[in-house]
Amino acid sequence: MNNTEKLDAIREYIYYIFSSDATGHDYYHMKRVARMTSLIAKQEGADQFIAEAAAWIHDVGDSKLFSNSSDELDKLNDFLQTINCTQSQLKQINTAAKDVSFSKGTTPATLEGKIVQDADRIDALGAIGVARTFAFGGSKGQLIWGNDNKENTSIQHFYDKLLKLKDLMNTSTARQIAEERHSFMKNYLDQFFNEW
């Protein structure tokens, strides 16, 4: 398989796993992150195949989505071998995908990983980010907001994480994209509190 065929196979594998997810970490999230990763990787001179492959698989094994993370990662790596990813590609893809999550509080070691992290964070911003926040909160039984208890509400998540993301982007390309989406979210919150 050439790299284009490998990416097609990875996309199908991800569709199978995430097509029915209702937390905002669905197949379309992976698709947007992969597309944004490809765009940023071109601008930043990264390895297109490694970056895009890592983008597609970045949520496989995430403990907030899977009860047995290591099993999912083992299955993924078995799959990547069946589509003829080399050992070098396997290592680079896994390295690029492993430190993407905001909750880990780490910056990926490679340019490709930094780009996937940026693309994932961009998808948490703007109109899509607002929608995903409420989808995730609803799936976890969170209130939208509360006058008395603001912790563990979807709106509080904007302050705990989302409004911080713009300043945590790794690449100049991502910083430019994040700026507009960040502004949208601030305007959204102003409107939300006016209505509340």
Automatic annotation (TrEMBL):
Classification via SUPFAM superfamilies: HD-domain/PDEase-like (SSF109604)
Source species, domain of life: Bacteria
InterPro entries referenced in this protein's UniProt entry, alphabetically: HD/PDEase_dom, HD_domain
CDD domains hit by this protein: HDc
Ranges where the HD domain occurs: 26-125
SMART domains xref list: HDc (SM00471)
Gene3D superfamilies: 1.20.58.1910, HD-domain/PDEase-like (1.10.472.50)
One Pfam family hit: HD
PROSITE patterns registered for this protein in UniProt: HD (PS51831)
Protein name: HD domain-containing protein
